[in-house]
Amino acid sequence: MSLNPKNFTEKTNEAIEQAHTLCEESKNAQVVPIHLATALFADDHGLAHQIAQKAGADPVAIERSLRRQLIRLPVQDPPPPQVGAGNDFLKVLRAAQDVQQKQDDSHLAVDHLLLALAKDKEVIKSFNEGGLTENQLEAAVKQVRGGRKVENATAEDVYEALNKYGVDMIKLAEDGKLDPVIGREDEIRRVIRVLSRRTKVNSQTFFMNVMILTSVPSNRTTQF
Asked: I need a labelling partner for 92 at 20 to 30 A (CA). Which of 113, 123, 146, 174 fits?
């Protein structure tokens, strides 16, 4: 599969354009992985920040470290009339494409880029300085994706909306942070009866249905 921008998500194309701009502004001769990583973490509300926070890392510290590396890159004065893509940058894009293919996604997304960038020896130094390891990154990406496929050019918008406006009730239940179940015994039993008839029951879907039904309290308390 060739590196075709038409097969990238909108946010991936934006990040690549911003990396190119950073390269020009910094008077560097070639776009390298540090430019791309810096572009991704420059967006305070972007997916890179959200994934780093999900992993328990400090995205601001990561960005600062990346910018320190950025200013140490070789400078050409006068700047080149046109900058190109360096071999390491193309290597990251191809690695991201490999991740995309393994996950059977239709478009190359930001999370693919982040996983590929973690393989770069310079970028991973900045990730580590902000408390983000490769294993933590992989786990956080899985959490943010939630098993969803990238099926269009705006797929990351769904990740961001769910994380910004949604509540992970499964995680709250696992952490013991849900309020006690109040009433709704009849509704719970109906859900159990319906779902138990199915040949295959997705346990997460089952639990979510129970939690939704019990989210509106009544004046009776049910204990389990």
From this structure: 146
pLDDT tens across 131-144, in order?
Answer: 999 999 999 999 88
Domain boundaries defined on the chain: 5-165, 170-213
Bridge partners for 30 per DSSP: 84
Residue 64 to residue 23: CA distance in whole angstroms = 17
Q: Which residue, 139, 138, 143, is CA-closest to 119? A: 138
pLDDT at position 214: 45
The topology under which CATH files domain 5-165 is Double Clp-N motif (1.10.1780)
Instruction: Note the pTM of the prediction, 2 decimals.
Output: 0.72
Say which residue the tokens 């797929």 belong to: 155
Token readout for 187 is 């509704």
Q: Helix or strand or coil: residue 124?
A: helix
The closest of 114, 81, 85, 66 to 5, measured between CA atoms, is 85
Q: How far apart are CA 96 and CA 113, in angstroms?
A: 5
CA distances from 24 to 27, 113, 151 (A): 5, 21, 32
Phi/psi of residue 31, each to 5°? -80, 130
Specify the amino acid at residue 173: A
Strand locations in 106-194, DSSP E? none
| Structure-token pair, residue 161 | 């909306």
